[in-house]
Amino acid sequence: MSQQPAPQLPDPARTPLFYQRGFRSVLTQGIYVALTAIVLAYVIASLDLREFGFGFLSEPAGFKVGNQWLVDVDGVTNSRITMYLVGVWSTLRAVLVAILLATLVGVVVGVARLSSNWLVARMAMLFVEVFRNTPLLVQIVIWYAILLVGAPVIQNVLNVGDFLFLSNRGIAIPWPVPSDGLWGAPDWFVGIWVLALIAVGAVAMRVRAKRQEHERETGRILFANRWAMGVFAAGALISFLILGVPVSIDRPVIEGTSYAEGMLVQPEFAALVLGLTMYTGAFIAEIVRGSIQALPKGQTEAANAIGLTGYQRLTLVILPQALRQMIPSVTNQFLNVNKNSSLAYAVLFDDLFRVATIVQNKAGHALEMFFVIIITYMVISFAISAVMNVLNARVTAHRI
Amino acid sequence: MTSEDTASSEPAPPKISTEARPEPGTMVPERLIGQPDIITVSHVDKWFGDFQALDDVSLSVKEHEIVVILGPSGSGKSTFIRCLNRLEEHDAGRIVINGIELNEDVRNLNAIRSEVGMVFQQFNLFPHLSVLSNITLGLRKVRHLPRLDAEALAIQLLERVGIPEQAEKHPAQLSGGQQQRVAIARALAMQPKIMLFDEPTSALDPEMIKEVLDVMQELAESGMTMLVVTHEMGFAREVADRLFFFDEGALVEEGTPEHFFTSPREERTKLFLSQIL
Ligand SMILES: Nc1ncnc2c1ncn2[C@@H]1O[C@H](COP(=O)(O)OP(=O)(O)OP(=O)(O)O)[C@@H](O)[C@H]1O
Ligand SMILES: [Mg+2]
Description:
- The complex is a heterodimer of chains A (about 400) and B (about 280).
- Chain A contains eleven helices and eight strands.
- With about 400 residues, chain A is of the alpha+beta class.
- In chain A, the strands form three sheets. Chain A has a four-stranded antiparallel sheet with strand order 1-2-3-8.
- Chain A is extended and about 100 Å long.
- The two termini of chain A are about 45 Å apart.
- Chain B has ten helices and ten strands.
- The N and C termini of chain B lie far apart (about 40 Å).
- In chain B, about 40% of the residues lie in helices and about 25% in strands.
- In chain B, the strands form two sheets. In chain B, strands 6-7-8-3-9-10 form a six-stranded mixed sheet, with helices on both faces. In chain B, strands 2-1-4-5 form a four-stranded antiparallel sheet, covered by helices on one side.
- The longest helix of chain B is centred in the last third of the chain and has 16 residues, at about 205-220.
- The interface between A and B is medium-sized, with 24 and 32 residues.
- Magnesium ion binds near residues 77, 78, 198 and 199 of chain B.
C-alpha cells in the first residue's frame, strides 16, 4: 500500500503567556486566594479574640430545657454542652418526623392534583396554594394557637377510649417502654433486643436471597418472601421471650392537671412539625406533580394497554420513574426542613437554636456559639445530603 | 350541530356509503371465508373538541385476518386503532370486539384490555424495569401468575422474538429493533386474540425494520388477528388480507392488496398511493 506523504505545515506560532489557558487559570485563582486572605485577615484583626475558646461549654448549665424525650436532664448538674445536645436531639426529632410526614403528604397531594376526579384535584390544588404561599413562621404560629386555644383544657381532656388523650397540654398516646419483664431485667435489655432484631433481620434477608437463588437454579417455587417474613417473626418472638419480655406498652393516664405515662406530643413540637410538614409537603406535591407530568404519555398508555389498574399503573409504572426525577429537588426540600426548623424559636420549642441562644445569654461567647450553631446545621444538612445521594445512586443505577 | 356546520361549509369529502359497499365477504380472501367477525365497528365518530377525528367509520374484521391501515398523516389511523382498546373513547356508534361492547362498563374495559394487545411507534417500554420484568409485569399483576411461571413464559416469548439473551438488560441498553421486539413480546404475554400495531417500524433505522417485520409476519402466520398501521408497502402487499384506506377521519376504501395496488377505485386512494409508492 502506498502511503500519502504527510502534508507540510509551517512551524506553529507561539501563544503569548497571557493568552495561554493554563496561565489564565493560575492567574484568576491567585487573585481569588489573595482577595480572600485580605478579607479574612481584616476580619480576624478586627475581632477581639482574647476570650475565644470553648471552655465555657463544659460549665454547669443552670437552666432548664423543655420538650425532652428519652433524655432526662435538669440543667443543675448538667453542662451547657449537654443541654445543647438535648436541643440538637429535639431538632433532629422534629426534622426527621417532618421529613417523613412531608414526603407522605407531598406524594399523596401531588398525585391527587392529577386526579381525574374534579373535587379531589381541586382540594389538592387548594392545599398547595394555601400552604405554599403563606410564610412558614405564620403557619407555625397559627398551628400553635390552634393547638393551645382550640384544644380543650386538661380538665375537659378529650379521651379517646382511654387510649389517646387530647388537650392543650398536647396529645398523649400509648408508647412502648422498657420493663422489668419476667426476670427483673434492667432497661438495657431492650437494647439487646433491638440488636437481636437487626441480627434476625439480616438472617431473614440471607434466607430470602438463598431461596431466590435456589428458585432460579431449580425452577421450584420456594416462597422466598414468606420464608423471610416467617424467619423474622419467629426470631423476633423467641428473642423477645428469652429476654423476658423486656418491653411493655405504657398507656397514658391523667394525674391531676397533667399527663403521666405514655408518650406526650407537646403542642410546641406538634406545631413545629405540622408547620414544616404542610409547608414542605406543598412544595413536594408540586415536585411530584411535575415529575409525573414530565413522563412520556406513552408510559400511561402502555400500562393501560396491558390492563394494569389505575393504582397498579401509579405504583408500578409512574411513581418509580417519577421518583428518580424527584430526588434532587426533594433533597433540597429536606435541607430546607432542617434550616426552617430553627423557626421553633417562635413557639418556644427548645431546639438547638433556642438552647444555644440561652447558653449565649448566660455565658456570652456569641462568636463561639454562632460557630457551633452553624457547624451543627451544616453537619445535619450534610448527613441528609449523604443519605439522599446514596438513595439517588441506588435508584439511578440503571440508565433510563 | 357542529358536525352539520362543518359539513355544509366545506365541500363534503366523497364517502363510500355502506349500501354501495360490496357484500360482506366478497372482498375477503378465500382463506378467511367462513371465519366469524371478531371486530365490528359501526358508525363510529370521534371528536377532539370541535375537531372530528373519526367520521362515521363502519367496518368488520374476521378472526385471523391481517388488516393494514393506510392513510395520510392526520387521517385518524391512530385514533381509530386506539379506539379499539379504548385508549380513546369513541363519541358515537358502536364497537364490539369478540362479543364485548366497548362502553362505560369497567368490566368490559378490563376484559378488552386482555383481548387486545398493542404495540406503539415509540415502543413505550417501562425504562425502570428489566426486559424480563417488562414482560412479566402484566402476567404477575393482571394475570396473577406466580413469578417463576411468568418468567418461564417471558423467556419463551423472548425466544419467539429472537432475543432471549437480552432478558436481564434494561430497555435503554437495547437497539430500537430489539426494544420493539420486547414490546411485541410484552403485548403477546397477555395472550391477546387481537394485536394492534401503530406504525411499529416508523421510529426504527432501516436495518432494524426487517427484524421487526419478520416477527410480525411470523405472528401473522401463527393465526393472530392483526391490525397494522404502517407505511411498509412490502408488508402490506405480502402479508395483509385486506387494506383499509383512511382520509380525513373516514374509511374511504377497503380491499385486498391486489385491488389496491392494481385498480384502486377512489381518487384520493390513487393520489395517496402515487405519493408513497
Ligand atoms: N388528543 C388529541 N387532541 C386533539 N387532537 C388530536 C388528538 N389526537 C389526535 N388528534 C388529531 O386527530 C387527527 C387524527 O390524528 P391521528 O393521530 O389519528 O392521525 P394519524 O392518521 O395516526 O396520523 P399520523 O400518520 O401522523 O400518525 C389529527 O388531526 C390530530 O391532530
Ligand atoms: Mg398515527
